[in-house]
């Protein structure tokens, strides 16, 4: 999953974190793993997986 932050700050908001948890749980019900959630902007990106906020067991 990915989305952009046009504000320029790629850090996830609390709403971004809650959405990630909710979507991951919903996808688990149909056996689809959510592997990562990236937030992109003009200067780079933030990865939930690479920063440890998301585990892929």
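-> sequence recovered:
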């Amino acid at each position: 999953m990915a989305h952009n932050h046009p504000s320029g700050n790629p850090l996830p908001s609390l709403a971004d974190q809650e959405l990630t948890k909710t979507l991951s749980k919903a996808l688990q019900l149909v056996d689809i793993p959510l592997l990562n959630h990236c937030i992109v902007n003009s200067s780079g990106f933030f990865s939930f997986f690479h920063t440890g906020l998301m585990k892929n067991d």
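DSSP finds one helix and three strands in the chain.
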